[in-house]
Structure formats: C-alpha cells, structure tokens
Amino acid sequence: MNPSQNDRRKEAAPGGIRIRLRFASAWEILRDAIRNYRTNGDTNQAAAISAALIHAPRTASARSLEESHIAVINGDTPRSLLRDSDDVSLFMLKEFSNRIRHTNEALEELTQSWVRLMAIIYFLRAWPLPEERDPDAELAKITGKETAEIHEVLAELGRRGVLTFADGCVNGFNRDEALRLIDEQVTV
Prior knowledge:
By secondary structure, this protein is mainly alpha-helical.
C-alpha cells in the first residue's frame, strides 16, 4: 500500500498496531460536515463549523474504532474558504438559509400551538361568556396577534369540536374536548 502525500502511518513492532491517519483538507472537512448535516441531520459538525466562524469556544472528545479523518478547524479556515471560493460561499449560504427556513417553520408551529393554548385557557377560565365579551378582540390583546389570526384559531378549535358557533359568535365550549386537545399536544 502506498500512502498518499496527505497520509501518515505509524507501525509498531511486527504484528503490532498500525495507525493510519489521513489529514484531510479543510475543504473536504467542510464539505463532509455539510453533507452529513444534509443527509442525516448530523448537527455536531455543522455546529463546529458555525462555532469556528464566530470564534465561539467548542471542544469535543472522540474515540475512533476505525480509520478516521481528523482535522482541527479554527475560525480562519472557514472564513478563508468562504472568501476564496464562490462555490463554498454559495453552498454555505444555501445551507444556512435552509436552516433559517426550517427554524421559521418550527417557530410558526410553536406560535400556533401557543395561541391555541391561550384560547383554550381563556375559555376554561371565562366560560360561559357574557354577551358583551368579544373573545376575538380579548385574545388578540392577550396574545398580540391580529384578530383575523385569532378568528382562524377559534375556527380551528371549532373544527376540533372544542367550540361551537352561531351567527359568527361562540355559543358553546366543550371542556372535555379542550382538555383532550391539551393532552394531545403535551404527548406529541
């Protein structure tokens, strides 16, 4: 076996341990980290590169059971790659954009769940509602959301059997369905 220029070998006494380390280029490590994140959600490598970019301290311990690629990436490595390569810059920009998009989607789902929970708590505490109460306006004030958004959440609660409506006003609240919906959200 002829090792490449980037390989290092150390052999012990005959029949002993052979250690072979391949020192990969920074680009290979960066590419593999992003590829691992994309294919199996391996956030460790992506987080390490992100930490290196912003000079955030990060340490890790590892034990290899097979031949491994080892690299130490400091903050200058990814910055140099981003500065020197349009392809790497575009690749990283796309990956970070995807992460932001996924984060935004998760935040939107969380916000919807929170508004639903606030509406259920509102009706648990205030039911039966006197005629002068306006749940859309009161919940909008409580949550900081627009009344149209609140109206959509209340309509969803109606579809789930928590609320009933007559003439565009809430005229029924099913406490058991509300509690079942809370239990469903908690166990997800």
